[in-house]
Amino acid sequence: MAMVSRLYRFPVKGLTPASVERVSLRADGAIEGDRVLGFLLADAGEEQRPGWWPKASFLTMQNTPGLALVSADYDDATHVLWLSHAGAEFVSGDVQVDADRLRLAEALGALAATFDENPLTGHAERLPLNLVGDGSTPRFHDRTAHNVTLMGSDSIAALEATIGGDVDERRFRMNVTIDGLDAWEDLSWIGGAVRIGGVELDVTGPIVRCLATHANPVTGERDLDVMQTLTREFDQERPTMGVLAVPRTAGTIAVGDEVTLI
Q1: Strand (E) positions, 2-69?
Q2: What whole-number distance in Å separates Cα of residue 236 and Cα of residue 184?
Q3: How far apart are CA 98 and CA 9, in angstroms?
Q4: Quick one: 21 exposed, middle or buried, by C-beta within 10 A (0-12, 13-18, 19+)?
Q5: What would the pLDDT profile of 204-215 be if each residue is shown by its tens digit?
Q6: In angstroms, what CA-CA distances link 156 with 171, 172, 241, 256?
Q7: d(Cα 14, Cα 70) in Å, to the nearest integer?
Q8: Pairing with 123, which of 58, 92, 195, 235 sits 20 to 30 Å away (CA)?
Q9: 0.85 exceeded by the pTM?
Q10: Torsion, CA 156, CA 161, CA 165, CA 171, rounded to 10
Q11: Is the pLDDT score of 226 beyond 90?
């Protein structure tokens, strides 16, 4: 039996996930509390649609792998964001207070500029960072349309066996990890639909991976050639791990929920 083994949501785009026991799916296809904030580069330009910029416009693990060492804790009720580095808090603030937003952005920008790999050093036009988002509305997904992201744990195991080392699933920044599937079985769902607990979701496409997957989510170092391994060893045209799904209605998904094809 296939079942949900782990759930994640990402309050701040590009920063650490929150591991949770259940998530609430909105009618617009997003997960409540997921990607509700983001640290935008100063030269990001105009929004490509209201409240949305492409991934490259943000400070993320794709351009700053050391962000893996920055822990983001966010309280939905109080709107307070805490940022810690190497286990020590270095800034916190209420994201609904302008002065706090400025302070959070300045502190993270200053820290990111000290990392060996970052998009800020030598690029004064990219500072100051701008903390965007209201802290409540999911906006900053990699695609203009909202999706829930699903991945089978046995696909990770297959990658580990081939790459010759542990692969932390958090590299892939997914919402839902599913046990009990064959490796890559979720890719066969594309164009169909699944039921997770009491929620039905249309599976709309594969997820093509980026350089963020090369960054170890614990050490912040680029230590595995994930993209090349996926294309070379698994005969993929583009490096793919996981699928996109759109819920048909609002609802709740919980750890332990059964996953079945419709």
Answers
A1: 3-9, 18-20, 22-25, 38-40
A2: 11
A3: 25
A4: exposed
A5: 999 999 999 999
A6: 10, 10, 9, 19
A7: 10
A8: 92
A9: yes
A10: -20
A11: yes
